[in-house]
């Protein structure tokens, strides 16, 4: 006896109700390598393969934005050897072919002034080369922290007030959002963190006020297409009320 019932999470997805913007904290590369008796850098290398795989899937599904927490401002506190390896890996992983083949636009957010000229130049070159792609926008958060981002936004808003281009009473949440590095895209609908930890780690704090959070124990190098689809499926099972009641939400659908 055969059945047409869906057997995978990807088959269960309602493609009309996918999140526009998925943000991911790609955690667990080092622990993945340690479990296998490997150098931590090899875990990061394997993590790049997951980035390529999930980017391709997100593009095929028709998502609009995929934001990946690649390197935080706090990551500079890691051993210098690991930091150097990460920077080299970031530079070597910028494969233009992947983006052009999948019509993906590459963008970067974070404090570019803290990166080497070589890495910064490579990121900006790929951003420029893919600027006309019209599909998924893959956004790498590099040398990024939410506190840095908010501090910079406050400084810019203060300059506008001092310069009399903005009145103090006119500062709203929309004004603040417009001064963030993510102003070009909507807030995340879903934020995924792999690796078992359950915290935001200074990532998109302002933008995640009403984001659905999804934590899983799987290390990032083992995060498969099916694991990603499971996160999307569980997102679709949740009711997003944004402060309203269930009854109010039901009448608006």
Fraction in helix: 40-55%
Strand order of the largest sheet: 3-4-2-1-5-6
Number of strands: 6
Order of helices and strands: HEHHEHHEHEHHEEHH
| Annotation field: number of helices | 10
Indicate the mean pLDDT: 93
Report the sheet with the most strands, covering strand number, pairing sense and barrel closure.
6 strands, parallel
The rounded distance between the terminal residues' Cα atoms is: 38 Å
Computed Rg: 19 Å
Helical/strand content category:
alpha/beta
Assess the beta-strand content as a share of residues.
5-15%
Task: Give the overall silhouette.
Answer: globular
Q: Low-confidence segments, ≥5 residues, pLDDT <50?
A: none
Provide tags for this entry:
253 residues, alpha/beta, 6-stranded parallel β-sheet
Describe this protein's structure:
There is one protein chain. Helices cover 42% and strands 13% of the residues. The chain is of the alpha/beta class. Strands 3-4-2-1-5-6 form a six-stranded parallel sheet, with helices on both faces. Helix 6 links the parallel strand 3 and strand 4. The radius of gyration is 19 Å and the shape is globular.
Question: In brief, what are we looking at here?
Answer:
The chain is of the alpha/beta class and 253 residues long. The protein has helices at 9-12, 29-35, 40-61, 80-92, 96-101, 117-129, 146-162, 173-178, 225-236, 246-252, and strands spanning 21-25, 65-72, 105-109, 137-144, 190-193, 212-215. The chain has a 6-stranded parallel sheet with strand order 3-4-2-1-5-6, with helices on both faces.
């Amino acid at each position: 006896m055969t059945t047409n019932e869906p057997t995978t999470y990807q088959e269960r997805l309602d493609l009309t109700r996918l999140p526009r913007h998925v943000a991911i904290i790609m955690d667990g590369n080092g622990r993945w390598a340690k479990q296998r008796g490997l150098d931590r850098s090899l875990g990061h290398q394997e993590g790049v393969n997951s980035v390529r795989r999930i980017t391709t899937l997100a593009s095929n599904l028709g998502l609009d934005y995929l934001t990946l927490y690649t390197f935080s401002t706090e990551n500079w506190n890691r051993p210098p050897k690991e930091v150097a390896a990460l920077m080299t890996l970031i530079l070597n992983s910028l494969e233009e072919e992947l983006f052009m083949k999948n019509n993906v636009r590459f963008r970067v957010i974070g404090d570019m002034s803290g990166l080497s000229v070589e890495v910064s130049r490579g990121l900006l070159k790929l951003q420029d080369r893919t600027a006309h792609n019209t599909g998924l926008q893959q956004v790498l958060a590099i040398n990024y922290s939410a506190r840095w981002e908010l501090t910079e936004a406050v400084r810019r808003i203060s300059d506008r007030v001092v310069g009399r281009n903005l009145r103090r009473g006119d500062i709203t949440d929309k004004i603040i959002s417009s001064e963030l590095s993510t102003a070009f895209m909507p807030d995340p609908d879903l934020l995924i963190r792999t690796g078992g930890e359950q915290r935001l780690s200074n990532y998109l704090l302002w933008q995640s006020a009403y984001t659905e959070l999804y934590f899983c124990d799987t290390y990032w190098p083992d995060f498969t297409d099916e694991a990603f689809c499971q996160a999307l499926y569980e997102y679709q099972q949740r009711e997003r009320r944004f402060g309203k009641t269930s009854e109010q939400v039901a009448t608006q659908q």
